[in-house]
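User: Earlier you gave me the apo prediction for this protein. Now I'd like the version with guanosine-5'-triphosphate bound, so I can compare the two side by side. Same sequence as before, with the ligand SMILES added.
Assistant: Got it. Here's the input I'm using:
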Amino acid sequence: MRGSLHSIGQQLLGPPGRRRMRVQQTLLGMPALLLMQILLLVEHRVSGAALGELGWYAAITWSGCAVFYGLVRSGWSERLSAEASLSLPQMAFAMGCVAWAYWLAGPLRPALLLLMPLTLSFGVFALDDRRVRTLSALGIVGVGGVVALRLPAQAAWPDVALDLSMWLFTAVTLASIGVLARRLARMRERLRAQKSELRDALERIQLLATRDALTGLLNRRAMMEQLQTLARSRQPMTLALADLDRFKQINDEHGHAVGDRVLQAFGQRAQQMFGESGLVARWGGEEFLFAMPHADETLLRMLLEQLRSTLAGSAHEGLPVSVRIGFSAGVARCHALTDLEEAIERADQAMYRAKVAGRGCTSSLAVVQDPAREPA
Ligand SMILES: Nc1nc2c(ncn2[C@@H]2O[C@H](COP(=O)(O)OP(=O)(O)OP(=O)(O)O)[C@@H](O)[C@H]2O)c(=O)[nH]1
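And here is the structure of the complex with guanosine-5'-triphosphate:
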């Protein structure tokens, strides 16, 4: 029994997600509608009045509910309106139902008007303040109209006073909700602005924490994190450690600012060449680490040679023509997380071997060896 009730509920609401939330919102007003109709029925029964108009009321209001439910549950509302929950028409409809019930009701009618501000208060969360105020005006005019229409039929002064005061209190309450909605809208705007400021600040912090300020490449810590993630997922990769050749000389001859521009030029070219298929980081002063997942040593060596000839063959903006950018590199393979530190160490030693071998070349070591004892 519980199982079948559960599955009916699931069918009624649909699969979990945003649409289901909209369906739940649509169903929310139905208990209130049912309650209103019970109240009207009781009143009519007690007073012995004819039920004719009540039948129309029930038929039209429930048909309206069924249409809204069908549109939202089927997803048609998503195609029909940018506001897929159809909150505005649903609330306008609900307020119309309350006003009509007020018209039909007898002495218990003041209770019905409580549903007006209740409906509008849902709108404060679902709609923008302009729409809430439109609904509020609609409610005031709607109840006012019903009260005005009832006046000629009122026999006694207390009934007229009751209707007018009910309208007055409803108007004040609905107008207050409209004001409240405006305040809430301003608060939401402030929150939205703060949220976007926070997001920007977070992006800036992330950039500062993960990027090298001079070259814009990944910094050592961020690179290490990325390499650990790759190694943890058991992706074999080839690493290369590159060190600019005779960089101190560039600094000494042309000044530190030119040295900085050389680092930037190298970083830019390296990123252009490796950024799509691999990772490049500024590892230290004039050292850069390259990583290519799934690539073999031959491919990485080939790309390094391309980088070398690009750097040698092109003029660099903002740099004296006499400045030549060259580098020595060491290559090593990494197969697992436990191998990572050692692979970087091997690449470092291989790079040192390339320096010893005369610079401007790439070297590799199969195992950790003492480069001083084993020249290239
Ligand atoms: N302009 C500049 N220089 C830097 C930066 N970081 C490190 N350096 C310089 O890089 C130079 C590295 O010099 P060395 O380690 O002797 O290496 P090298 O001159 O490239 O010689 P080899 O590596 O043997 O070819 C030092 O003079 C550092 O001051 C930086 O951010 N900007």
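For your comparison, keep in mind: DSSP finds 15 helices and five strands in the chain.
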